[in-house]
Here is the input.
Amino acid sequence: MRHLVPVKEAREQLGGISPTTFYALVKEGELSLVKIGRRSFVQAEELDDFVRRKRQWARGPQ
Here is the structure.
């Protein structure tokens, strides 16, 4: 089973971004949510992939 991270914790892992910024990333397709009942989660692996993509983008072509 994949590890699910609650939205609040995911926002903290992404540098404490605001809810507005977080949900903008979801709307843009950068992150996807897993809904269980009323709660929303992000897969831990997806958070790691997102950070890797942004890190590569920041470095530019090598």
Summary: The helical segments are 7-13, 19-27, 44-59. The first strand starts at residue 4 and ends at 6. DSSP finds three helices and three strands in the chain.
